[in-house]
Amino acid sequence: MTSTSGAATTGDPQPIDLGRPVAGDVVALILADHVRFEALLRQLRDSSSDRDAVRHALATLHVAHAEAEERHVYPTLRSEHAIGAHAAEHGEEEHAEGHQALLDVLELTEVTGEEFDEAVEELSRVLGHHLAEEELTILNPARAGVPEQARLELGLAFVAERQAQIDADCGRVERVRDLVARAARNGLLTDDGDS
């Protein structure tokens, strides 16, 4: 479940705050989410944290962020000629890989033990790779090639889509499963898992 504040909840009285930005430069907004991803991954690796709540918050943020980028950011950056088709398609492939790694974590019944730790390690690897590559190959060209006013307008579209996804409880395991199935049908997932 999610609250209208942008916090992911699992019946826990202390929801995990995913932020609810309302405007800003799209590059800064995306980078703020990247910081949130890294913090959530650290919490997920911490055996003393509420790992169930954290994995659901991470799934919600990942799906909302990826959907907002794919629907608004990548197409706009392509139309502004800041990035090419390959960069956008590769970003979508990496989102699909992230969804798959998230699904592997979400579907585990236990949040302790070697199987969980291995799934979290793979999720950390996949997301860490994507964050670094996106910052280098998508966000840097956006900074250099898109005027500030256009980045601010794109920021409005990004946060509106991001929040709509969060409000729709986009991190449910069924939704992540559907996204993985769609990505597989569309050829975005490879058998070897390499990016």
Verbal overview:
The protein contains six helices and two strands; from the N terminus they run ββαααααα. The protein is mostly helical and 195 residues long. It has one domain. It has a two-stranded antiparallel sheet. The chain is globular and about 50 Å long. Mean pLDDT is 91; it is low at 1-5 and 9-13.
The number of distinct structural domains comes to 1
Count of helical regions: 6
Class per helix and strand makeup: mainly alpha
Distance between the termini: 31 Å
Mean pLDDT across residues: 91
Strand order of the largest sheet: 1-2
Helices and strands in order:
Elements: E1 7-8, E2 16-17, H1 26-45, H2 51-79, H3 85-106, H4 114-145, H5 148-167, H6 173-185
Antiparallel strand pairs: 1-2
Helix pairs in contact: 1-2, 1-4, 2-3, 2-5, 3-4, 3-6
